[in-house]
Automatic annotation (TrEMBL):
<dbReference type="GO" id="GO:0046047">
    <property type="term" value="P:TTP catabolic process"/>
</dbReference>
<feature type="domain" description="NTP pyrophosphohydrolase MazG-like">
    <location>
        <begin position="40"/>
        <end position="113"/>
    </location>
</feature>
<dbReference type="InterPro" id="IPR048011">
    <property type="entry name" value="NTP-PPase_MazG-like_C"/>
</dbReference>
<dbReference type="InterPro" id="IPR021130">
    <property type="entry name" value="PRib-ATP_PPHydrolase-like"/>
</dbReference>
<dbReference type="GO" id="GO:0046052">
    <property type="term" value="P:UTP catabolic process"/>
</dbReference>
<dbReference type="InterPro" id="IPR048015">
    <property type="entry name" value="NTP-PPase_MazG-like_N"/>
</dbReference>
<dbReference type="GO" id="GO:0046076">
    <property type="term" value="P:dTTP catabolic process"/>
</dbReference>
<dbReference type="Pfam" id="PF03819">
    <property type="entry name" value="MazG"/>
</dbReference>
<dbReference type="InterPro" id="IPR004518">
    <property type="entry name" value="MazG-like_dom"/>
</dbReference>
<dbReference type="InterPro" id="IPR011551">
    <property type="entry name" value="NTP_PyrPHydrolase_MazG"/>
</dbReference>
<dbReference type="Pfam" id="PF01503">
    <property type="entry name" value="PRA-PH"/>
</dbReference>
<dbReference type="GO" id="GO:0046061">
    <property type="term" value="P:dATP catabolic process"/>
</dbReference>
<dbReference type="GO" id="GO:0047693">
    <property type="term" value="F:ATP diphosphatase activity"/>
</dbReference>
<protein>
    <recommendedName>
        <fullName>Nucleoside triphosphate pyrophosphohydrolase</fullName>
        <ecNumber>3.6.1.8</ecNumber>
    </recommendedName>
</protein>
<dbReference type="GO" id="GO:0006203">
    <property type="term" value="P:dGTP catabolic process"/>
</dbReference>
<dbReference type="GO" id="GO:0006950">
    <property type="term" value="P:response to stress"/>
</dbReference>
<dbReference type="GO" id="GO:0046081">
    <property type="term" value="P:dUTP catabolic process"/>
</dbReference>
Length: 279
């Protein structure tokens, strides 16, 4: 039987989170809801959740605050969607999700909500945070140092987190120089694999090299995911500059060649340096 819809709440612009929860309940109603929404499950919605998180990050990187407002709404909808499906299956509710995260934040900030002093450095606060999280993992019977690092994370981000976890128990190179030496070793192995091994073995060696590169970022105090995202943005910006310069010549990239585009790339870089010097 179809559930009664709270039309007053659904049409109330000031209905807040309860309005959104009611909208999702109606969309998922098996008798009167949206056929597409009714068919979805956790697995089918998960890719959208990841996509929305990246779109939030993209809006922040572009400092597009109106766009960020919309993207945060889209991301919030993902939480509402998953909790609606969980409630239908009897797993948990939106209220329990809110309660759990609220309890977690209070427990992890004893220097704000408890008796501990706030007079500590950021480094000490980070160490305390990690100690609290380690105790939480122990309570969950997560015995292995790497347990709990989400498999669904982007591979570069997961590599970074795995390496941080291993470093906490002493499994780490002493310095960045040691990591750089390992990169040289892995690069040589990749070249050898390319010339003598199968494609799957080449892929394995390539993965090893990328994994060590992520570790170098950690040793340098960098977030590899952020660094690569910045490199992607820089490449996109500069290639657009090359296309603009080609357009001034009445050409497109497919009407050019590598030598010309490489020279224009250098010109774009020079333009950027000149603009930065003026600032």
């Amino acid at each position: 039987m179809a559930r009664d819809q709270n039309h007053d709440l659904i049409n109330d612009p000031d209905g807040g989170i309860e309005r959104l929860l009611e909208i999702m309940r109606c969309l998922r109603d098996p008798d009167t809801g949206c056929p597409w929404d009714i068919e979805q499950d956790f697995d089918s919605i998960a890719p959208y959740t990841i996509e929305e998180a990246y779109e939030v990050a993209d809006a922040i990187e572009r400092k597009d605050w109106p766009e960020l407002e919309g993207e945060l709404g889209d991301l919030l909808l993902q939480s509402v969607y998953h909790t609606a499906m969980a409630e239908e299956a009897g797993h948990f509710t939106f209220a329990s999700v809110v309660r759990n995260i609220s309890d977690k934040m209070v427990a992890r900030h004893p220097h704000v909500f408890g008796d501990e002093s706030r007079d500590k450095s950021a480094a000490q606060q980070t160490a305390d945070w990690e100690a609290i999280k380690a105790a939480e993992r122990k309570d969950k019977a997560q015995q292995g140092a790497l347990e709990g690092v989400a498999i669904g994370l982007p591979a570069l981000l997961r590599a970074h987190k795995l390496q941080k976890r291993a470093a906490r128990v002493g499994f780490d190179w002493p310095s960045a120089d040691d990591v750089i030496a390992k990169i040289t070793e892995e690069a040589a192995e990749l070249v050898e694999a390319r010339d003598t091994l199968t494609q799957s073995e080449v892929a394995e060696e390539f993965g090893d090299l990328m994994f060590v590169m992520a570790n170098l970022g950690r040793h340098l105090g960098l977030e590899p995911e952020e660094a690569l995202r910045a490199a992607n943005a820089k490449f996109t910006r500069r290639f657009a500059g090359v296309e603009a310069k080609l357009a001034q010549r009445g050409k497109t990239p497919d009407q050019s060649d590598l030598a010309e585009m490489d020279a224009l790339w250098d010109a774009v870089k020079a333009d950027e340096r000149a603009a930065a010097a003026k600032d």
